């Protein structure tokens, strides 16, 4: 099956710094990728839809200047958490649209961000 | 709008017990339905899917049938194992949507006792 990787898997940073998380589709091209945030023991919350070659579409309530998304190629999308604060600590998961008829998405293993 | 409602957890069972996790949905048209599993500290893995009414998705002993008449997609397994302990998410996707968003249920935590 299709594989999606994320890097890093875990990151700890100081408050005020920026953190970049990469999402790659390893064996297929994805014009659309998605970024989710998951709080402990909760479901996934869609943050934004990342479109190759164009601006990301953010969900209501998600600050686009805080969470910068770049989808520069068909296999890579990046999420940058700018000026991170402790409340940004969370599990961030990306997924890539397979492009098939049924819109199956393949998920990355997630990145745990801890902001001190 | 589209939504997914699933059984609240946590669910705790003994090994070899029968499992049912209920899931119902609200959607316009004919969504695709999915069950995802999340093991501790990991991302989501697709467990099974069904793309049209009366389809049965199955994988690793788990099954779910797309029931349009009851708008349900309940997850079942005849004999659970300790290794099945995880969080299970029911989800739907509207193939007509160009954004192909997936809408997740709240998740059900399953713990299996040896």
Helix percentage range of chain A: under 10%
Shape of chain A: globular
Q: Give the distance, in angstroms, between the N- and C-terminal Cα atoms of chain A.
A: 37 Å
- Written as H for each helix and E for each strand, in order along the chain, the element string of chain A is EEEEEEEEEEE
Number of helices of chain A: 0
> What fraction strand of chain A?
over 45%
Explained architecture:
The complex is a heterodimer of chains A (116) and B (114). By secondary structure, chain A is mainly β. Chain A is built from no helices and 11 strands. In chain A, strands 2, 4, 5, 6, 9, 10 and 11 form a 7-stranded mixed β-sheet that branches. Chain A has a 4-stranded antiparallel β-sheet with strand order 1-3-8-7, with no helix packed on it. The relative contact order of chain A is 0.33. Chain B has 114 residues and is mostly beta strands. In chain B, 0% of the residues lie in helices and 50% in strands. Chain B contains no helices and 12 strands. In chain B, the strands form 3 sheets. In chain B, strands 2, 5, 6, 10, 11 and 12 form a 6-stranded mixed β-sheet that branches. Chain B has a 4-stranded antiparallel β-sheet with strand order 3-9-8-7, with no helix packed on it. Chain B is globular and about 45 Å long. The A-B interface holds A 1, 6, 32, 34, 41-44, 46, 49, 57, 93, 95, 97, 101-110, 112 and B 32, 34, 36, 41-46, 49, 51, 89, 93-95, 97, 99-102, 104-107, 109.
């Amino acid at each position: 099956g299709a594989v999606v990787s994320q890097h890093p898997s875990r990151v700890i940073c100081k408050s005020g710094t920026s953190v970049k998380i990469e999402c790659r589709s390893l064996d297929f091209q994805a014009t659309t990728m998605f970024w989710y945030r998951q709080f402990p023991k909760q479901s996934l919350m869609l943050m934004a839809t990342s479109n190759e070659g164009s601006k990301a579409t953010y969900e209501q309530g998600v600050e686009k200047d805080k969470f910068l998304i770049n989808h520069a190629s068909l296999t890579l999308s990046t999420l940058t958490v700018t000026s991170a604060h402790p409340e940004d600590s969370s599990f961030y998961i990306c997924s890539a649209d397979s492009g098939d008829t049924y819109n199956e998405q393949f998920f990355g293993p997630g990145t745990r961000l801890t902001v001190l | 709008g589209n939504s997914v409602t699933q059984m609240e957890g946590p669910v705790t069972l003994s090994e070899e017990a029968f499992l049912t996790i209920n899931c119902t949905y609200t959607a316009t048209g004919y969504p695709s339905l999915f069950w995802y599993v999340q093991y501790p500290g990991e991302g989501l893995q697709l467990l099974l899917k069904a793309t049209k009414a009366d389809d049965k998705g199955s994988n690793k002993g788990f099954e779910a049938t797309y029931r349009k008449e009851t708008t349900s997609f309940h997850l079942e397994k005849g004999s659970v194992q300790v290794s099945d302990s995880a969080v299970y998410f029911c989800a739907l996707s509207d193939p007509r949507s160009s954004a192909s968003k997936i809408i997740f249920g709240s998740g059900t935590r399953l713990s299996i006792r040896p």
